[in-house]
Amino acid sequence: MFANCRKSRGTPDGLHIDANGFVWRASFRGGNLTRYDRNGNKREVVETPGKFVTSLTFGGANNDVIFITSPNLDGDSIVYFAITNITAKYSNIFL
After folding, report:
1. pLDDT tens, 21-39?
2. Of 2, 16, 58, 69, which residue has the fewest beta carbons closer than 10 angstroms?
3. All domains of the chain, ordered by start, with CATH?
């Protein structure tokens, strides 16, 4: 097991690994993103405007914006959010 998510809010959904090797987990029904280090230790929790977070990626001119997707409450549409209040800059390993 990489990380124990039992005490975390929500259900683990989308994952993303940044250039520094941190694993980011979207929390479906949890309304947050959780960042884990390479050993599976929780390092940061970022609250999100959407409760049903399904996926995330990094972007912006300086890779300091997290983009997330979350189904709308009607269940028929997807809402996109950009989170800009993170304190560090991250970069995608896939760019």
Report:
1. 888 999 988 888 999 898 9
2. 2
3. 11-83 (2.40.10)
